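@channel sequence for tomorrow's demo:
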Amino acid sequence: MIITNIETVPGMNIVAQYGLVTGSTVRAKNAIKDFGAGLKNMIGGELKSYTELLSDAREEALTRMKAQAQKLGANAIVNVRFATSSITVGAAEVYIYGTAVKVQPKG
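structure tokens (generated this afternoon):
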């Protein structure tokens, strides 16, 4: 599956469009890691547990979007964007969306 944040796939023609595909996940903070992050926040530095949490969430959302595109018969997703939002205290959503398409080499 080709994933790109631009409207086309270089060197390829879009031969079919299947529409919007999405993926999302909502993740909550771990209370023990949250305590450690609170201490780190006081002294400064990267909050690695949160970085890891968001990285895992992005991968899960991406996997879900790709699965949706594959069910439609797509072999690429163009114009991909990520968004995040706070759902409640201690929980955040990672949302990804793009346009599912079928591409083939130019020529």
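heads up for whoever presents: Strands lie at 2-3, 12-28, 76-88, 91-105.
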